[in-house]
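Researcher: I need the complex structure. Ligand is fe (ii) ion. Inputs:
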Amino acid sequence: MLKIIGASCVFKCDQDFSILQDGGVLFECDPHSSSNQILKIQDFATLTQEYPHLQATFYSDCVLLPAFSNAHIHFEFSNNQSHLLYGDFPTWLSSVIAHREELFENLTQGIQREINLQLASGISSVGAISSYGYDIDPLAQSPLRVTLFNEAIGSNPQALDFLYQNLLERFEKCKILKNHKFSPALAIHSPYSTHYVLSKKVALLAQSESVKLSCHFLESKEEKQWLYEKNGWFQEFFSHFFKVANAKPTMNAHEFLDLLSNLSPLFVHCLFADDAIFDKISQINGSVICAPRSNRLLNGCYLDLDRLTHVKLAPIFSTDGLSSNYSLNLIEEIRSAFFGYAHLDAEKLAKNLLLGITRFPAIALGNNNGELKEGKDADLAIFPCCGIQTSQQKPLHFVLYAQTQVKDLYINGIGEYTWKQ
Ligand code: BEZ
Ligand code: FE2
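Model: Output:
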């Protein structure tokens, strides 16, 4: 079964950001196939002449592009609205510990709402950080393409065996649910919160199971001081919340990277990473994921993207969870980022923001999507964007004017969301 769709403007999201006017995509749409792929990208008129018997839809005043990937999101924090405190990292982390229990009450509805919002925002793929496993079933049952990062966290040496067993149980459950759209994976919360021994076990497990691994890394200046100087606010934190007098980190930043060196890991935030760290991340084939609005709320700054480009790392943009954001819509996220990075060339930034939610996260997650190209999975999004046809700055105008709700979304060639007015 084949289908053609076309639009006034097609963003291929290849390395050069090629754009096709009045373009069309021919793709497979067999409801029983686990791999419906893009077969051809061409001028819409030529394509429909070549395949006159196929169903073909053209979207005027719209952009057709690869469906988005939100590579770092916490569905389990979907209940937060005003529980958590923003402004600096210590205030925020203390508020998370204080409100942990109440945030997880009646969670199912909140998780479902945010799954629906991902689909409505044109997102086909998510990298979901799962701390407790509450999101596993709703995500496995959703139409989304999911990389489910089962997360390990814990610094108490006495609790490590229990914590690892708990992680294994969640991971095994995910292995049973594994299919073409649901990939089990692992996460280490961060080097400040996860004991070296537990981190190492998780890294070895990721290697032996050949799954993706994600971690928060160097998110705050307090974390940097803790990992590099072994003192500062985290010492008080461990004494106050965990009653550990004179606590010390169980590894430094480079020892953490060494643990992950053959896993092509995903590093989230890296706001306080120095050039030596970025060099090493690049050498071990890691990727860096930004969450600009989360960074603004918790740490009052954005990652310097030039430092990434310098070591040939491609920036990836994600929303993080509602624990550090007010909306998990990715177009809104990159629109905010566009205004946050005021010093960068506007047209170049717009292209990078779009590649950072399509092409680059697909590579980091190991998905065969994120680009419109023959042989890629048919994960496609169509967004209304008035005036795009005549625009001389299409990527920039898309970032500014695209509707934040998708018109139609295809995942694996199947229509999974249609916006009805
Ligand atoms: C812990 O569970 O040990 C932990 C949690 C959050 C931050 C730091 C440590
Ligand atoms: Fe996060």
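Model: Summary of the prediction. The chain has two domains: 2-66+370-418, 68-365.
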